[in-house]
Amino acid sequence: MKIFAACRALGFVIIAVQLLPNPTQAATDAPYPNRPIRLVVPFPPGGPVELLGRAFTQRLVETMGQPFVFDNRPGASGTIGTEFVAKAPRDGYTLLITNCSHSSNVAYYKKLPYDSMADFAPVTQADVTSGNLLVVHSSVPTRSVKEFIALARARPGQLNYASAGVGSPLHVTGALFALMAGIGLTHVSLQGQLARA
After folding, report:
1. What's the pLDDT tens digit per position in 52-87?
2. Full-model pTM
3. Does 145-196 carry CATH code 1.20.140.150?
4. Residues carrying CATH 3.40.190.150, the chain
5. In CATH, which superfamily holds the domain spanning 2-127?
């Protein structure tokens, strides 16, 4: 239950290994930032996390005077891109934009190649307004949530729901819905973001 609470609290978060330049830099170095900033998106291009990041960084480009270069590194529920950021130099030039999979992956994987808490420092919460809709194909004989739950109880494990991957917000939301409704739904992880499906 703590995982669900963490996802709800995090929403979309930008996380940095370290915001400020390394304090050991020479005093003659130009002030931060003096070159482009890499924003790693641990999901496929065109998904909701990247779209939010692009909207969010427009203003930062204006105020910081440096471009943000988007670097999509999808796979393993966000752990591939997240590991890349965790192992990047701690100079403030490699940032991560992610979703609640950052907190839920701790429960899904026995061992992660990084420490979700110790290796990252939150910078800002970019969005908490995104939500989910329950929609069904027109061939499904239900017209309300109550009817859908009744159908799922009559056909345990035979109804599927899709998400962009294990630990994604839609996966966690679907699992929580099934748990609260006392029904069995089968999770199907799609390749890439649902926005592109």
Report:
1. 889 889 888 999 999 999 999 998 888 999 999 999
2. 0.69
3. no
4. 2-127
5. Bordetella uptake gene, domain 1 (3.40.190.150)
